[in-house]
C-alpha cells in the first residue's frame, strides 16, 4: 500500500473512532446550522481535527481543503481534501449511512482516495494506477449492460432547491428504464458502493469537492467512468457528477445532458 494511503487510512480510522463513540450520544451533541438543511456538529469538528493532525504530522508541507475549517496552505503542490463526516444529517438521525472521506490531489490529479464507513467498518482505498480495494481485496465496477435493469443511486437537492425541477426531470427519465434508484444520503459511500459493483451508476448536482474527491479516484481505479454533465472533467469545480460502469455511462450521460441542456440550471452553472 502506498505511504499516503497508509496515512490516510490511519486518519480515517481515527475520525471513524470519534464518530462511532458518539453514535449513541446524539442528544448531547452541539449542532449548528450552516445553511438550509446543512448541519455541523462538534463530532464533525473533532473528527476533522484528528484527521488534520495526523496528516500534518506526516506531511507538514501539504495543503488541506477541509469541509469545516476550509483551506490551509493555499498554493501547496499537494492538497488533502477532507470530509470528516459525509452524511451528517443521517448521523443525527441514527440512520447508519455516513462515512469519512479523504483524498490527496497533486496539482490537478487525484493520487490517493480513502473512504471509511465506521458503522460497517468497510474501508475503501485507491492509489492512482494501482486499482481500488475494499478491506484489502480488489474491487471492480459492475458489468451491467445499459440502464435497463440497472440499479442507480443519487442525491436529492437539499440546501439549494432552485434546480429541483431540472433534477426531477433527470430522475423521471432514468427511473422509467432502471430497475431502481436509491438515495442513501452519502455521496462518498454512493461512489464507493458503485466501485464495489453494488450499484451501476450515480449522478448528483452541486456537490462539494470534499464530498466526491476520494470516491472519484476509487471509482476510476475500479474501472468506472466519471464526468460532469457535459462529459468533461470539471466535476470538482462544478460539483455536477455522473459516474457509472462503462456500459451504463453513455446512456446516463445522454439522458442527463439532454435534460440539462437549455435549463435554468445550465445557465446558472455556466455563469459560475
Q: What is the number of helical segments per DSSP (H or I, 4+ residues)? A: 9
Report the span from N to C terminus. Answer: 38 Å
List low-pLDDT spans: none
**Mean pLDDT reading:** 91
Can you tell me the CATH topology of the largest domain? Answer: Fructose-1,6-Bisphosphatase, Chain A, domain 1
Q: Indicate the CATH architecture of the largest domain.
A: 2-Layer Sandwich
Strand content: 25-35%
Explain what the structure shows.
The protein folds into 2 domains: 3-138, Fructose-1,6-Bisphosphatase, Chain A, domain 1, CATH 3.30.540.10; 151-270, D-Maltodextrin-Binding Protein, domain 2 (3-Layer(aba) Sandwich), CATH 3.40.190.80. 36% of the residues lie in helices and 26% in strands. It contains 9 helices and 15 strands. It has helices spanning 3-21, 42-58, 88-92, 164-175, 187-195, 209-221, 235-238, 249-260, 264-270; strands at 31-35, 38-41, 63-66, 70-72, 78-86, 99-106, 109-117, 122-127, 132-134, 137-138, 151-154, 180-182, 201-204, 225-227, 241-244. Helix 1 runs antiparallel to helix 2, helix 4 (164-175) runs antiparallel to helix 8 and helix 5 (187-195) packs parallel to helix 6 (209-221). The model has no long low-confidence stretch (mean pLDDT 91).
What's the arrangement of secondary structure elements?
Layout: H1 3-21, E1 31-35, E2 38-41, H2 42-58, E3 63-66, E4 70-72, E5 78-86, H3 88-92, E6 99-106, E7 109-117, E8 122-127, E9 132-134, E10 137-138, E11 151-154, H4 164-175, E12 180-182, H5 187-195, E13 201-204, H6 209-221, E14 225-227, H7 235-238, E15 241-244, H8 249-260, H9 264-270
Parallel strand pairs: 3-5, 11-12, 11-13
Antiparallel strand pairs: 1-2, 3-4, 5-6, 6-7, 7-8, 8-9, 9-10, 13-15, 14-15
Helix pairs in contact: 1-2, 4-8, 5-6
Amino acid at each position: 500500500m502506498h505511504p499516503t494511503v497508509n496515512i490516510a487510512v490511519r486518519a480515517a480510522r481515527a475520525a471513524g473512532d470519534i464518530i462511532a463513540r458518539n453514535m449513541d450520544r446524539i442528544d448531547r451533541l452541539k449542532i449548528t446550522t450552516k445553511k438550509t438543511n446543512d448541519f455541523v456538529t462538534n463530532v464533525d469538528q473533532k473528527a476533522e481535527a484528528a484527521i488534520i493532525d495526523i496528516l500534518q504530522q506526516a506531511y507538514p508541507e501539504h495543503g488541506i481543503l477541509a469541509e469545516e475549517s476550509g483551506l490551509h496552505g493555499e498554493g501547496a503542490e499537494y492538497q488533502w481534501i477532507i470530509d470528516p463526516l459525509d452524511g451528517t444529517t443521517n448521523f443525527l438521525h441514527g440512520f447508519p449511512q455516513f462515512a469519512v472521506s479523504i483524498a490527496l490531489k497533486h496539482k490537478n490529479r487525484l493520487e490517493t482516495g480513502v473512504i471509511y464507513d465506521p458503522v460497517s467498518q468497510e474501508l475503501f482505498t485507491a492509489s492512482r494506477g494501482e486499482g481500488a480495494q475494499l478491506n484489502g481485496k480488489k474491487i471492480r465496477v459492475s458489468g451491467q449492460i445499459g440502464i435497463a435493469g440497472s440499479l442507480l443511486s443519487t442525491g436529492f437537492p437539499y440546501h439549494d432547491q432552485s434546480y429541483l425541477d431540472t433534477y426531477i426531470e433527470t430522475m423521471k427519465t432514468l427511473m422509467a428504464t432502471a430497475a431502481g434508484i436509491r438515495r442513501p444520503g452519502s455521496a462518498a459511500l454512493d461512489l464507493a458502493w458503485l466501485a464495489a459493483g453494488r450499484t451501476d451508476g450515480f449522478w448528483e448536482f452541486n456537490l462539494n469537492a470534499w464530498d466526491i474527491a476520494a470516491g472519484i479516484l476509487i471509482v476510476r481505479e475500479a474501472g468506472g467512468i466519471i464526468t460532469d454533465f457535459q462529459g468533461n472533467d470539471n466535476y470538482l469545480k462544478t460539483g455536477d457528477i455522473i459516474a457509472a460502469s462503462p456500459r451504463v455511462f453513455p446512456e446516463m450521460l445522454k439522458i442527463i445532458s439532454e435534460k440539462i441542456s437549455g435549463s435554468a440550471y445550465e445557465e446558472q452553472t455556466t455563469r459560475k
